[in-house]
Amino acid sequence: MNFLIRKWLGEDPEVTRFRVWMGIAVLWCLSGVMSCSEIKYVRQGETATATLVNPSNEFTRPIRATYRWKDSETGENRNKVLEIRQGFPQPQIEIQYIPGGLDSRPASAAAWLMPGIFLGITALGSGWAVMTVKIYR
pTM of the prediction? Predict the structure, then answer.
């Protein structure tokens, strides 16, 4: 494994440095784009209690269950079909949704890994930039 990493990074230190910085830049851009959905749920999202409408009678995995809740903006009933991989459908669950929009997810599905990576790389990069400016003054 170590051989493959060395082969990919290259023998020349300049090539290695360039590839590492490009990898960090790609990770930063990717995590920034993936963070947008979390930011959307934080800014505009609302949480509602959804009730089970029609539980599936299947015993094969994943079990599909339809949940319904009332949209606070439009007043319409909205549905969400969830695939349950472990356990059985609960009679009520918390749903996060964008009022008037099409996006919804279970409230427990928040993914803070990508925003954390984005903010971490941003903080380290800005700290590195500040230290570089101070050193070269």
Answer: 0.64
